[in-house]
Design brief:
The complex is a heterodimer of chains A (151) and B (121).
Chain A (H helix, E strand, L loop, with lengths): L5 H23 L8 H19 L1 H7 L2 H20 L26 H39 L1
Helix pairs in contact in A: 1-2, 2-3, 2-5, 4-5
Chain B lengths: L1 H19 L3 H22 L21 H7 L4 H31 L4 H6 L3
Helix pairs in contact in B: 1-2, 2-4
The chains are: A mainly alpha (151), B mainly alpha (121).
């Protein structure tokens, strides 16, 4: 049987949307509540890994294909570098050039929310790609072990 | 003082597992425990005892607090922010170690380090 039992599949179908919304909330409000890009990226990557564990490798890779994950990984890093280079508008490298805004509101603190979004995209796709590589590596290893045992 | 001693005990346990066990997966678990003990120690350094709250004031600013008094009384948030990235780096190191262990098992058919160090080529 591919993936896990029926109970795990049904519960995953109910809950996976809430997990993604929770992860995006932690990334987006990183300048007001604890968390930020790193912790929110790990939560989003764990959501992808849950899909892969419950439904099997083929369905999970059908939703997020390998070239798309690779492109999102690189574009997250490039977005962070572009934000740092745009600081030259203000004077120095990595200068906070956007207006500071009202305190305790979502649209405040310069470009820190945009930097959090870039880090969230990068960390989530990096951890997902690392997990996919481990799974494919393990399948290749077990296939060669079976072949050598049969000889 | 006792909490620093218990953190040191966790570090010693992780170091013992890394050095004295022969199975490769047990060595990897020892390394992970060592990593978490060091992260815990860095977070414990930033604690400041507070008069208004028995467990220390968390470093979250609310709209009705005075910023100058808050920065003097609350727990130091800088070690917590740095340890957050360190934990995710430990996860990345664990990915690399596990893939190396899979490769060693494929090549040598065993995960016992006393056997592996006897083999040549």
């Amino acid at each position: 049987m591919i993936g896990m039992t029926l109970i795990v599949k049904k519960v995953t179908q109910f809950i996976i949307g809430l997990i993604f919304v929770f992860g995006i909330n932690i990334v987006l409000f990183g300048h007001l509540t604890p968390g930020g890009g790193f912790a929110g990226g790990v939560i989003l990557a764990c959501g992808f890994i849950l899909i892969m564990l419950a439904f099997g490798k083929d369905i999970a890779l059908g939703k997020v294909r390998k070239p798309i994950a690779h492109i999102m990984d690189s574009s997250g890093a490039l977005m962070f570098l572009a934000l740092a280079m745009l600081g030259y508008i203000g004077g120095t490298f990595f200068f906070n050039f956007l207006p500071q805004g009202k305190q305790f509101y979502l649209r405040s603190a310069g470009f820190i929310p945009l930097a959090n979004i870039a880090i969230g995209i990068k960390v989530s796709s990096s951890l997902f790609v690392a997990f996919v590589v481990l799974v494919l590596f393990g399948k290749q290893v077990s296939k060669t072990m079976d072949d050598s045992d049969e000889e | 003082m006792t909490i620093y001693l218990m953190c040191f005990l966790l570090l010693v346990m992780g170091l013992y597992c890394l050095v004295a066990k022969k199975h490769l997966i047990k060595k990897i678990i020892g390394l992970v425990i060592l990593d978490y003990a060091i992260n815990l120690f860095i977070v414990l350094i930033g604690y400041r005892p507070s008069g208004t709250r028995p467990g220390g004031l968390p470093p979250i600013l609310f709209p009705d607090m005075n910023p100058a008094q808050f920065s003097r009384e609350a727990v130091d948030p800088l070690p917590q922010a740095l340890v957050l990235t360190s934990i995710v780096i430990g996860l990345g190191v664990l990915f690399m170690l596990v893939s190396l262990a899979i490769r060693i098992y494929e090549k040598y058919k065993t995960l016992d380090t006393s056997e592996i160090s006897k083999l040549k080529g």
